[in-house]
Specification:
about 270 residues, alpha+beta, Phosphatase 2c, domain 1, five-stranded antiparallel sheet, 8 helices, 10 strands
Length: about 270
């Protein structure tokens, strides 16, 4: 099965004065079919958020370029990106008057396998067609309260401390990193990596529905448009990465079979 990657990176500044999110997708220069996606949301409540998010993307690109899959495990690479970004961001606090912090989501794809890591409340979703397979857990106060059963989905939307993070990069304590992965990727699988400026406005069902009927670029356009409509006039920065897996050969065969059936039907029509 030959899987083709259909990907798109999209951002909108929202109603903020500065875009403090960073997002990127890049292939490996030496290993064909290997790709990394990274997204970082600089803390809106801290000066230097954009600088912190930029450091995450730079460190991801640097470590990915030297990654040797025959010698390193995917989790080792992902951990190095998050931990080293944290160190660089903390050092920035001593060399400037800024106080940078950031979330981090890093996704590594290689053939039919995907591995990911995150810290903070930016999310990594995995869908199969329109059904949610998995979603990263927010490292936030509201997220923890929901996991404890002390807060429901509706209460989380209006909680006065809904933006309070328990873990992030650049803080005094070491970042908590959650890992995930799958080696069973197939046609119809999709990943969405996004900041809270996007996921705050969508249910899992709506995200899956959009992904299942649109290309990566079209889905990104639809989601950003809806997020802006729902977020005005106080909308946050919006950033997302969409990666869809397509079995080109299977879809070409299905289309050929459809056309052949149509031709046979036409051939049986009376003159």
């Amino acid at each position: 099965m030959a899987l083709k990657l259909d990907s798109c990176v999209a951002q909108h500044i929202g109603d903020r004065k500065e875009q403090q999110d960073r997002a990127a997708v890049f292939p490996h220069s030496r290993h064909k079919g290997m790709l990394m996606a990274v997204l970082a949301d600089g803390m809106g409540g801290h000066s230097g958020g954009a600088m912190a998010a930029e450091q995450v993307v730079l460190k991801a690109r640097e470590n990915f370029e030297t990654y040797a899959p025959s010698l390193e495990k995917p989790q080792d690479l992902l951990r190095s990106v998050v931990e080293e970004s944290h160190v660089v961001i903390k050092l920035t606090r001593f060399t400037s008057e800024q106080d940078p912090h950031s979330t981090a989501c890093v996704l590594l794809m290689n053939g039919g396998r995907a591995d990911w890591a995150h810290c903070g409340d930016s999310r990594i979703y995995h869908f199969r067609n329109d059904k949610l397979v998995s979603c990263s857990k927010d490292h936030s106060l509201v997220g923890e309260l929901m996991r404890q059963g002390r807060l429901d989905q509706e209460g989380a939307k209006t909680h006065p401390q809904r933006n309070l993070l328990l873990h992030c990069l650049g803080a005094q304590k070491e970042p908590v990193i959650d890992f995930g992965g799958t080696d069973a990727l197939s046609d119809g699988d999709s990943f969405v990596v996004c900041s809270d400026g996007l996921w705050a406005y969508f249910s899992d069902e709506e995200l899956g529905g959009v992904l299942s009927v649109y290309s990566a670029r079209e889905a990104a356009e639809v989601l950003i448009k809806r997020a802006r409509e729902r977020g005005r006039p106080t909308g946050d920065n919006v950033s997302l990465i969409i990666i869809k897996l397509v079995d080109v050969e299977a879809r070409q065969k299905a289309e050929k079979d459809r056309l052949d059936a149509a031709r046979r039907k036409l051939g049986n029509l009376p003159a």
